Amino acid sequence: MAEEQTPDNAEQTAAGSHDVATGAPAHRGEPVVVLEPKERRRRARAVKAAKVKARPALTPEERHAERLAERAQKAGRRRTRRAQAKAKATAATTEPTAPRARTQGTQKVRQGVVISDKADKTITVRIDTARRHRRYDKIVRTSRTLHAHDESNEAHIGDTVVVREARPLSATKRWRLVQVIERAK
User: Fold this and answer.
1) Which of 76, 153, 172, 178 has its CA 20 to 30 A from that of 60?
2) pTM, whole model, 2 decimals?
3) Tell me: the pLDDT tens digits for 82-123?
C-alpha cells in the first residue's frame, strides 16, 4: 500500500525528510514512499531480526540435549540453595534456647439445662445465651447443645447443670459434668 509523493507532501521532501521504510534520509527529487503503520512495524521488525545473530537450526536431539543441560544447571543451583537453607535452619535450632514452660490453659465452664439423658454416662445439655444486637439493640436469644460425660448418671432431663471443658472423650463429647445445680421439678 505504498503511495507516491503528492503535491501536498512535497514540502516534506524538500525539507529533508526521511524515508519512512528504511529511516535513511530521502534524496532530492526522489519520491518518498509513505507506508501504513502495520507495514512500517513489519519492516522494522525484519531489519531488527536481520541485525540479531540468527541461531542455527538444531535437530530435536540437540534441542533435547540443551534442555537437559539447562535443567541440570538449574538443579545444581537449587541443590546449593537448599543446602544453604538447611545449614541456616540447623544453626538456628542448635542455638541454646530457654525451655518453654508448659502452661495450663483454663477450661471453659458453662451452665445449661439437660435435654436428654438417654445415653449411658452421657447427657445432652442446652446452653442458652442472650445478647444485645450491636446495631438494633434487640435482645437476641440463641442456644446450642453439647454432650457431656456423666460418670454416675446422676443428671436427668430438666436439671440445671454446670459442665466443664475436657479432652475429647468420644466423637462428640468434649465436656464433663461438674455438678447438678437444680433438680427438675
Assistant:
1) 76
2) 0.45
3) 999 999 988 887 766 667 677 778 999 999 999 999 999 999
Q: What does the DSSP assignment read for 29-92?
A: TSPPPB--HHHHHHHHHHHHHHHSPPPPP--HHHHHHHHHHHHHHHHHHHHHHHHHHHHHHHHH
- The CA-atom distances, in angstroms, between 61 and each of 66, 70, 110, 163, 182 are 9, 14, 74, 74, 87
In this prediction, residues 34-47 reach a mean pLDDT of 91
Which is nearest to 173 in space by CA: 146, 143, 145? 146
Q: Among 48, 43, 4, which residue's Cα sits nearest to residue 22? A: 43
Please state, in angstroms and rounded to a whole number, the distance separating the CA atoms of residues 93 and 85. Answer: 12
Around 48, how many Cα atoms within 13 Å sit in the side-chain half-sphere? 6
